[in-house]
Design a protein that fits this description.
The chain has no helices and twelve strands. The protein has one domain. A four-stranded antiparallel β-sheet has the order 1-2-3-6, with no helix packed on it. It has a two-stranded antiparallel sheet with strand order 4-5. A two-stranded antiparallel sheet has the order 7-8. 0% of the residues lie in helices and 43% in strands. It starts with a strand and ends with a strand. Strand 9 and strand 10 form a beta hairpin. By secondary structure, it is mainly beta.
Length: 124
């Protein structure tokens, strides 16, 4: 099965000897793709919390979907944590648009190894 995809490519950084390019997808199967912003503050553990912010990976518009996300927390208490996961499904809004809920646990890090919980909603 062929799925039509459109977008544009931009140059590579030259680090791949097999010559690669990055592609920014603008439509998938005839539907435009979109992203959401996300941000928040982790749980307070081991005497501190961390802030985080990022943008989800693109996903098709107008069909049931989720988004993958990835970011690092702010540096607090001389360390940071990684956050990654997949949002929940789209939650429609009465006047159009949608958002996604997300939650998870950070990677383990710190002088006293620990992790933090996080949760929130993406932007519209």
């Amino acid at each position: 099965m062929d799925i039509p995809v459109s977008g544009f490519m931009y140059s590579s950084d030259g680090s791949d000897p097999m010559h690669s390019h990055r592609m920014y997808i603008t439509s998938w199967d005839g539907r435009p793709v979109h992203v959401h912003g996300f941000s928040g503050i982790t749980s307070f553990d081991d005497g501190h919390s961390h802030q985080y912010a990022g943008t989800t990976e693109p996903a098709p518009t107008g069909v049931p979907h989720t988004h993958r996300y990835f970011t690092f927390t702010s540096v607090d208490d001389r360390h940071r944590h990684q956050i990654q996961g997949v949002t929940g499904p789209a939650i429609p809004l009465p006047n159009g648009g949608h958002y996604h809920e997300f939650n998870g646990v950070t990677t383990v890090n710190g002088a006293r190894p620990h992790r933090h919980f996080y949760s929130g909603r993406t932007s519209l």
